[in-house]
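Regression test attached.
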Amino acid sequence: MAACLAEELGYPILGREVAQEAAAGLGIAEEDLINRWETPPRMWEKLSASTRLYKAAILSVLADHAVEGNLVYHGLCGQLLLRGVPAVVRVRLIASLETRLGILQESDDMDRAAAERYLHNVDDARARWIRMMYGEDINDPALYDIVLNLDQVNFTVACGMLESTVRQTEFNLTDDVLNRLKDFQLECHVRLALASATETRAIDFDIEATSGIVSVAGSAPMLPSGRTGDTIHEIVQSVHGVKEVNFNINWFDPLP
Amino acid sequence: MAIITISRGEMSGGEKLASCLADVLGYRVIAREVLREAARSLGASPELLTVKYESVPGLWARLTHEREIYTLAVQTVLLKYCIEDDLIYHGLAGRYFLSGLPGVLRTRLTTPMEIRVKALRRVHHHMSQQSAEHFLKAQDRDHARWVKIMYDIDSDDLSTFDLALNLEAISIDTVCAIITEVVAEPAYQRTAETVAALEARESECRARLQEALSKRD
């Protein structure tokens, strides 16, 4: 479907390349990032600094590709990574187990039992991953703009329908939309900078950007030197495109 | 030319979508007429059938014979309408009654709570935001229980739909255009085969209804 849409719309396709670029940016082995990113995290890993860093790195790369609009992304979790971003059509394709088994057996020359085991494992891992990372149900229809059942809707019809949906006015790349995409990219870059720095990697921040003005919210430890605030400010200010930094941070005493 | 079912929550824009589709496609729109006609065919009042059919059954009432009769009566009437002409149905359980039939597009409309609350408060000006949200969530819960008990399917089970659309980012007009485009495809054209399949299902339902009625007597 990604290939069909890319051809019809003339858009580039992006999938696992996101993880490759993110790994290169972090200077780690691609397999390490992919394993960590695609394997459901344990409870303690969900909030760990490295999970936050990988998530920020992936999102940052995705935002770089999405900033101009016109992209077909078929990697993991696009419906949540790009939630709230304008001019994004979040699509889920579903098909019966029988249909999927047929496709897999044909493409990968698997026997039925192996194909069934594979699909069960992949589905289970993805559902657990999304539940652990985002607290969401992968099958919740509210997470998608369009869900297509390919057992019922012909593939070519589905591709044509998605193509014409993208061409509707609500998905036009207006100046406002392009500015919001730039803001989203800046938010992702700031989040990655904070997740990468030793002093701030353990802190979970909410970031909002509007035309270069960045608001940093969350809870952070207050040190007598006041150094934490200065450090956060320096890190955020160092990100290309940041013009101004505003804090909305609840400071707490780390050693009460 | 097709049969389109729309599944949606209360105040989700289902009627507006049905109306848009009817304008564009020229199809007939039906919803509660099915219930009224089913009641007439059983010699019951529409109010009684509404209570018996639409209310969430208690544990003791789940498998009662009466409930089976009401369900079969509603399904038979709906199928009769489908045989007559192309239509848009936005009443209860369309996806279940018409599952597996050719020429049927089973759609689901997902609408953010914020939009639904606004729509409800436009009708009931005295309702607070909180009570409107509370009311709609309670309706959703009841509906999910009803679907589970009556048909043993999850209300949100995406595999029971052919096409699900979310009004968070897409307008009703675009949803209408998408559905119109899909039903223009050959798979949704009315043919002798699609009508025969509808007639066979209707005939089966009618026979089951007669059998259930004879046992009641």
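Expected vs. actual: identical. Chain A has two domains: 2-171, 197-252.
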